[in-house]
Amino acid sequence: MTNPYRQHRRILVASLVGTTVEFYDFYIYATAAALVFGPLFFPASSPAAQLMLSFMSFSLAFIARPFGAVLFGHFGDRIGRKSTLVASLMLMGISTLLIAFLPTYAMVGWVAPLLLCILRFGQGLGLGGEWGGAALLAVENAPQGWRARFGMVPQLGAPLGFLAANGLFLLIGMGLSDEDFLAWGWRIPFLASAILVGLGLWVRLKINETPEFAQAMAQEAPVRVPIGELFRNHALITFAGTFAVVACFAIFYLSTAFALAHGTTDLGYDREIFLTIQLAAILFLAAGIVISGIRSDATSAGRVLIWGCAATIGIGLIFGPLLGSGSLWLVWAALSLALFIMGFVYGPLGAWLPSLFPPRVRYTGISVAFNAGGILGGAAAPIIAQALSQSGGTPIVGLYLTIAGLFSLGGLLLARRSGR
Could you tell me the fold of the domain covering 4-417? Predict the structure, then answer.
């Protein structure tokens, strides 16, 4: 029998490259927000206030993502997955590239943070249509019995994008002085994003439409307003899907953006050492995604997600104490364990979310659920964790993960009660 991965290599590469670019673009902003955007773009009375404003600009993309989900979902369900994915990647890539050329607050005053926030919003708008299309590109081409294993391929873009983003920041930090890094070095990763976007566009322009979408369009005309039909006929399951994705966003941004900022400021760790620890920990996310994809095809994606949510509730109780332990080994253990568990609440989503919706509103449905859940789990994560650390210290920041795990578990159980 022909290996399905080999048979659909171009399709899977196109879905993987897109999500890799997505997470690279998203995370170079998160890293820059944690390290340099505060003093460069936000005048404030204290470093803590600058960091909070920087994280608030970071959260703008999460607010934009549902709008992007509706916009690109509309065209993805009406004209097709391929052309919509190309458009979302271009918007995301152009917004990211332009950040490299922004003036700072010292140069142009309040115009600098305004431009930064506009481009961050544009980044989030493009991202809103990216993940849903990439997941459908893989899953709607999957042979029988392989949906979860195909669906996990675009999910691997998260660790790959993180490795590229953090690895580049690490190399730049090692090669430049702190003054040069703050003055111009941070711009290099944003410039480099153009290479990944160009590769993504080249691959995507060579693929065909997914067979499931083509078959659905052959049977009946496309929905006139997909978001309207989604809320009329699929509101409850969209609500369930939204809460089900909260945990994966909470783990990722607490273990990456917040941990980096908190570790290099309040905890006093060296920036390059902490970036290295995160690079080592992210490999466990990749392992969790692969294992969860295999187990999802052997059992069910919903069951594996429930296991992951239960583990998220538990890791939240020990995450803060380990992060604030004063031991780099325990910090690495906390990040590695949390990201491994994230694999079980993120990896199966590529197969599980599309199973909730019919093809005619599937792009809109999974994009809205995924990106609305991102607001609850991701946008608030660094901000709430920063507030928790200021009020009760590092040991209590993990409680956010426990709460996120409970939300996602509730969403999964609601979906199960709805027969999905």
Answer: Growth Hormone; Chain: A; (1.20.1250)
